[in-house]
User: What shape does this take?
Amino acid sequence: MTGASDLASTCELAVIGGGPAGLAAAALAARAGVQTVLFDENPGVGGQIYRGITASPIARREILGDEYWAGAALASEAKASGALIVNGATVWGLDRNLLVSVSVAGKARMIQARRVIIATGALERPFPIPGWTLPGVMTAGAAQTALKAQGLVPDGRTILAGGGPLLWLLAAQMLRAGAKVEVILETAPRRNWLRALPHAPDFLLSPYRSKGLSLLREVKAKVQVIPVSAIEARGKGKLEEVAYVAKGQEQRVKANLLLLHQGVVPNVNLALAAGVAHRWNERQLCFEPIVDSDFATSVPGIAVAGDGAGIAGGTAAAERGRIAAIAAVHALKPGASTLDAQTVRQSLQREEMGRGFLDWLYRPAESFRQPVGETIVCRCEEVTAKQVRDMAAIGCEGPNQMKAFLRCGMGPCQGRLCGLTVTELIAEVRHTTPQEVGYYRLRPPVKPVSMAELASLPISDSERAAVDGRR
Amino acid sequence: MFKRLGDAGAALSFTVDGKPVRARAGDTVAAALLAAGIDHCRTTPVSGAPRAPYCLMGVCFDCLVTIDGVGSRQGCLVPVREGMKVETQEGKREAGR
Assistant: This one.
């Protein structure tokens, strides 16, 4: 394992995140002769989509499906490319001068890069329903991670709720693994079809079609699917039952585990802290970095590849990583031979084709994005929807002011689980747009760092002299 | 809430609040806690409500635990090791840990 003290103080290309975009980018750049370091926070590479790909204990490959195992090729290409891959590495800072701050096993280092590709991917959209903080309520992605990386399957009465491709994939994987799903509560509004339909021709030509439809068939043959307009998790100290409203009637069902999912959104924290300009994407209902066709951002030298640049899925993420890496190679090693960007762009276009249809079809309902009453919005500081709404109504104009009033977004998750909700609530109450309201102002460290980690930074003689006054 | 598929990975043992717990090589601390049926790993500093792992991907911070004396570690990002001492965390992180 590479430790902090093994890291050089400079590198040509720093790739942050070891999912499909990061692995593909690092492999391409390193093969072209660029000195490349890939930092990944998890114990092994793969990101979330290929989580545990190099060490999954799952022996029956059909449980996770061929598309999961396809990630093994990306991981081995990156490993063979000569890129330095550092796992267990948390990047907590990146500035406009391309200084990367990273901690590995409790020791911090600052590394000066000449180019940076942020490939920090996506996280699941907040799903603020009453009771979503109870033990026994998790994200669908969490259950999938436990399955891929540790071979754990839900046991007891399990309910899936929400919408989107990942929810159906998880249901299918759980069923193949022998787990039972009591019911799937479907939250995407039926009227979404109206806006999705114009995108249907692209979807029908895209790789999503056949795999998507067969997943739906596989799951619906075994599990009841109920369209619902409200969901509540209830219990004393842990989940005991799930209440939902179907056809205007409240129903209750006993449950040990509720798995929530309503799509994924870009993980913007590091890019925002680096000063990268973002904008609101109304179709995907999230903020995303403004990038050009090479995935370069507003900050010279920083690119954002993969789902972090807007949600397009794992295979598209790899192509985006390659395009960003080709640009980095051209900048760092003019004349080095590498893939033709045009070919990669064509594959990317194919991969992105069905996206519009899926985005509109599974666009989450307002009632599941803009909660009311005592429903918790900020899980860390336990701030409720009513508090945020009341504060917006008396004049609070933005998320940063909201922090000062309510502390929302100031806990350890740094707004990852409440940022979009707070922005949308303010926009709703103040009759404006999320673009106008904006997002939390993020600054490094984008993940908590201990004083001991900071104290482990190498100190130069001149820095020491500046503090203790001796020469 | 969770059970193991098959029997992959070498067995190892660690402690949670002093009690021995079995895990598998390749488990993260959070996964090992879920597999062991632990119902919560911390209580919140604000209301004292119990919390358990929520996202398992390093973003929610609900799986914060004290590991080998260091407080507020993200259990989902730390591989479990033989003999590791994990403690559930009540309210705020204690000073000096």
